[in-house]
Amino acid sequence: MWVAEVKGAIKRVLPTRILSHLRACRDLGAAGRARYVALQLRRSDPVRGWDAGDRWSAVRSVLFVCRGNIIRSPMAAALLRRELSGRRRTAIAVRSAGLRAEPGRRADPRAVETARHFGISLQDHRAQPLTAELVRDADLILVMDRLNHAELRGRFPEAGDRMLMLGALLQPGRRRPVEVDDPCDGSGTDIYRCYRLLQSSIERLACRLGPSTGVAGEARERRDLQ
Fold first, then answer.
1. Where are the domains of the chain?
2. Is 126 a catalytic site residue?
3. Are strands 61-66 and 163-165 parallel, antiparallel or unpaired?
4. From 35, 67, 72, 81, active-site residue
5. Cα–Cα distance, 120 to 4 (Å, whole number)
6. Engineering a disulfide at 178: which of 18, 34, 107, 167 sits with its beta carbon 3.0 to 4.6 angstroms away?
7. Residue 72 bears catalytic tag
8. Contact 166/172 with Cβ under 8 angstroms?
9. Which residues contact 64 (CB under 8 A, 6 or more apart)?
10. What per-residue string of b and e applies to 136-146 under the rule 16 or more CB within 10 Å gives b?
11. In the Cβ-directed half-sphere of 170, how many Cα atoms lie within 13 Å?
12. Which CATH code, of 3.40.50.2300, 1.10.10.10, 3.40.50.300, 3.40.50.720, is assigned to 32-225?
């Protein structure tokens, strides 16, 4: 009984971001934590490399990865499908998975409710664990935070050059890319803020993956990429 009370007290005192990182770091192990520190110190900008090499045009499959595949990655996938549909780029396959997902688990009820405000339904979503097959088939793998990135690189080092942090698209070249933190331990308000951040990131991603046509489309792309 007292253990539950202590955990509840900790949740009330510590910020949501710290809680999510503590939980994830616990599962990384020594090697994973070392990779996490290395990512924190990295100064290179992988988004700039993709832009310079025009790698976006070759992407035919996108995989979003988070921890549980019940809040962030399914919403990101749904938002991108909608954006690409509007740009007539439906040939790009979009999937999501979780590093610690429970197979068949429904989306978090708070996420389902919040997604409705964005015109997205997560009612039928069912979580799926990340597999070697999903990683192999993805041309672009987008993670939400450095903890996701560290664990993913540890499990699938061969896919390192196909991994990007989604939030890095918001401010390319930034010393520390924006992280889309796990709002699982937070409130509905935290999930709403998370989804606003996802929406902004996905808009910029869609500009690279599926260029709009016409003068109006070009104007929108310039605005979104600013």
1. 32-225
2. no
3. unpaired
4. 72
5. 35
6. 167
7. yes
8. no
9. 72, 73, 74, 76, 77, 80, 94, 95, 96, 97, 142, 144, 166
10. eebebbbbbbb
11. 16
12. 3.40.50.2300
- Can you tell me the distance from the alpha carbon of 179 to that of 163, in angstroms, rounded to the nearest whole number? 14
Listed in order, strand segments (DSSP E) in 47-205 are 61-66, 93-98, 140-143, 163-165
Angle at the Cα of 13 from the Cα atoms of 11 and 190, rounded to 5 degrees = 65
Name which of 46, 77, 51 is nearest 63 in CA terms. 77
Supply 111's token pair: 């996420």
Catalytic: 182?
yes
Is 17 exposed, middle or buried (CB count within 10 Å of its CB: 0-12, 13-18, 19+)? Answer: middle
> Does the pTM of the predicted model rise above 0.90?
no
Could you identify the residue written with the tokens 């339904």? 121
pLDDT (tens, 9 = 90+) of the chain, 226 residues, equals 444 444 444 444 455 556 555 655 666 565 555 555 555 545 556 788 898 878 999 999 999 999 999 999 999 999 999 999 999 888 999 999 999 999 999 999 999 999 999 999 999 999 999 999 999 999 999 999 988 998 999 899 999 999 999 999 998 766 678 899 999 988 999 999 999 999 999 999 999 997 654 433 444 444 444 4
37, 147 Cβ separation under 8 angstroms? no
- Choosing from 108, 145, 181, 182, the catalytic residue is 182
